[in-house]
Design brief:
RNA-binding; 8 strands; GTP-binding; 56% helix; nucleotide-binding; alpha/beta; Rossmann fold; 434 Repressor (Amino-terminal Domain); 21 helices; SRP; flat
Length: 447
């Protein structure tokens, strides 16, 4: 996420940290790089110009130039301006005090609108009873796709009856069913096109007037950059959007749409799609996004992933081991399983607040087969061997290799990686922040 922009910012602030005090020339050179970084990220030209001028006005003040830590102050200024650019606060979706609450999803075809409707339903299902309504009647595949998604997440579905072509009638029938099925949240998927046309805009306008939604959410593909911003402008002018959902944000190396939409349209980004799975939807948090852009990590996001992956029993067991300054192969097995649940390791590493972590793993990819092999090797050991790896000598290693369908060499590699993980846990436990380097013994995890 935002890899290109993050790399450019790292270079800019690295050059500033090497200076005892800053001159106006130092600031101007740094801001020129910031400007180029934002333009390359496909941020709107006027937005970039205003952003740089605001930073320049604050960064060339006497308090900054005469400070003993000017680079840190410039860093803080850029961070604050990024927050202002994206909107400082998380803006959760509204819930009507008088149910049902209605969300209307709009957007172009191919933006991920139908899938996003289901993602929102799943997210809201924890505290509400949502219903998915198919009002994209010109594309039969969209109706069937929403029906299948509704079934997969276990929420009610309303679609057109045979021969029905009026989306307003479908929406009204769905609203009538709410009381009998105790639904308190209606999510309506509307028609999409490959490009904006008058017929599309009129259809969604009429539907909006009929159902009077509490939220009108535009779904856009974040990887389309300025095109996404242009689409948001048109939809906002015609419909009055309450929020934007950015899809494919996990694959967006530039970040132009995320940084520009709020500044250009005044409409906040409310949610972000961060994967293809139906559970891959997050609240858009400007603070966390700014931290990641500036290489500060995402501790909150990391903790959320850890909490989702770890059971209370596993957490207690690992905590007890750490208290006793003990790390066994059984603990390593627990961690390997948690890592697989947390998703791609390179994405997890990006969240660490350790300078250079993402850069160290820029081209690294975790080999899922290698982790499965490691799991099989540990499971082929006896409980005594897992607790006391030092007793695993030649004959035991051959037996373990045969039992796991691997080789003695792979068993040796795992035992070496186990020792490296012990050292790594000790380092993180002491709060090491000197920079990140992949331990030699753990490089076998990467392709």
């Amino acid at each position: 996420m935002f890899d290109s922009l993050k790399d450019r910012f790292e270079k800019v602030f690295s050059s500033l940290r090497g200076k005892g005090k800053l001159t106006e020339e130092d600031v101007n050179l740094a801001l020129r790089e910031v400007r180029l970084a934002l333009l390359e990220a496909d941020v709107n030209y006027k937005v970039v110009k205003d952003f740089v001028e605001r930073v320049r006005a604050r960064a060339t003040g006497q308090d900054v130039l005469s400070s003993i830590t000017p680079a840190q102050q410039v860093y803080a200024i850029v961070f604050g301006e990024l927050l202002d650019l994206m909107g400082r606060d998380v803006k959760p979706l509204s819930i009507s005090p008088k149910p049902p609450t209605v969300y209307m999803m709009v957007g172009l075809q191919g933006s991920g609108k139908t899938t996003t409707a289901a993602k929102i339903a799943l997210k809201m299902k924890r505290s509400h009873k949502p219903m998915l309504v198919a009002c994209d009647l010109r594309r039969p595949a969209a109706v069937e796709q929403l029906r299948v998604l509704a079934s997969s997440i276990g929420v009610p579905f309303v679609g057109p009856e045979e021969g029905e072509i009026d989306p307003v009638r479908v929406a009204r029938r769905a609203m009538e069913r709410c009381s009998e099925s105790l639904v308190d949240l209606v999510i309506i998927d509307t028609a999409g096109r490959f490009q904006i046309d008058e017929e599309l805009m009129e259809e969604v306008r009429v539907l909006k007037e009929s159902v009077k939604p509490h939220e009108v959410l535009l779904v856009v593909d974040s990887m389309t950059g300025q095109e996404a911003v242009s689409v948001a402008q048109v939809f906002n002018e015609r419909l009055g959007l309450t929020g934007v959902v950015l899809t494919k944000l996990d694959g967006d190396a530039r970040g132009g749409a995320a940084l520009t939409i709020k500044a250009v349209t005044g409409t906040p980004v409310r949610l972000a799609g961060v994967g293809e799975k139906v559970e891959d939807l997050e609240a858009f948090d400007p603070n966390r996004m700014a931290q990641r852009i500036l290489g500060m990590g995402d501790v909150v996001g990391l903790l959320e992933r850890v909490q989702q992956a770890a059971s209370e029993e596993d957490v207690e067991r690992l905590s007890e081991s750490l208290k006793k300054n003990r790390f066994t192969l059984e603990d390593m097995l627990i961690q390997l399983r948690q890592v697989q649940k947390m998703g791609p390791l390179e994405k997890v590493i990006e969240m660490l607040p350790v300078p250079g972590a993402s850069k160290a793993l820029k081209d690294a990819q975790v080999d899922p087969k290698r982790i499965k092999h490691m799991e099989a090797i540990i499971l082929s050991m006896t409980p005594a061997e897992r607790r006391r790896p030092e007793i695993i000598k030649g004959s035991r290693r051959r037996r373990i290799a045969q039992g796991s369908g691997t080789s003695v060499q792979m068993v040796n590699q795992l035992l070496h990686q186990y020792e490296q993980m012990k050292d790594l846990m000790k380092a993180f436990g002491k709060g090491s922040r000197k920079g990140f380097r992949i331990p030699q013994g753990l490089k076998g995890l990467f392709r």
